[in-house]
Specification:
Keywords: Iron, Iron-sulfur, Metal-binding, S-adenosyl-L-methionine. The protein has 302 residues and is an alpha/beta fold. Helices cover 35% and strands 17% of the residues. The chain is built from eleven helices and ten strands.
Length: 302
Amino acid sequence: MTKSVPSYIRLYEEGKLKDRVEKAYDMLKECTVCPHNCRVNRVKGEKGFCKTGEKIKIASFFPHRGEEFPIRGYRGSGTIFISYCNMRCVYCQNYDISQEGDGEEYSPEEIAGIMLYLQEEGCHNINWVTPSHVVPQLLKALYVAVGKGLKIPIVYNTSSYDSIETLKLLDGVVDIYLPDIKYFSNSYGRKYSKVKNYPEITKKTIKEMFRQVGNLKTDENGIAYKGVLIRHLVLPENLSTSREVIDFISSICPDAHINIMSQYRPYYKAYMFRELNRSIDMQEYYFLINYAKRKGLKVVTD
């Protein structure tokens, strides 16, 4: 296969993509789709931590021109903003979507139509934003869409609190992983994102992503077609444990691509935490940019 043909095409042609859909839906019956392992029957409409049953909510979809250049390119990334999340970050800038669940319910068949529309609009890829809790539904939507002509790469845009079992169902399906590493501190994960074992789970997640697709690869125009691009949002007071995050990334892929993000603002409930209730120190931010470069990482900007 050429680099321009997404890997899921072959899975579809071999009948393996349908098998992945069936296995993923089995996980919904006693939900183990993400690390919360709520064990509710989402096929029957029961809801756990993510507040999502079988149907999923979508807040918006459009050709996004605000992502990193390798993702957005010249024609935009076909972004689908999925409502709710399996994390509850107190500083989330999209809290109306991730926490309050703004959006409308869609069936997998309807989501397939959305993906085909975004392809027709000329988008370079389909960008699933916050997909960790709805992988089975997205796989079913993809299966339907491929049968109707979908042929652009899939971007898995996640906060990295993902199940390894679920990620393995995406091996050969997802072309580009866009994980955000929050922090490598269990206490910060519990306090600010309401999840357990975030560092341990995230490290396994990132390693699995690199195992599947490797480092970021771009075409002659600089547009990504495969690989991992890591995001890391710098928080005040070194709450993002940034140097530890950079050291870890360097240890698994010495020339990995990373976007170290400076746009933190005290959104949502951040004002309730003194240490989060300010913007970041830009001097510290530029120190981290230089630190990552000294480690050999490829720093990608917006």
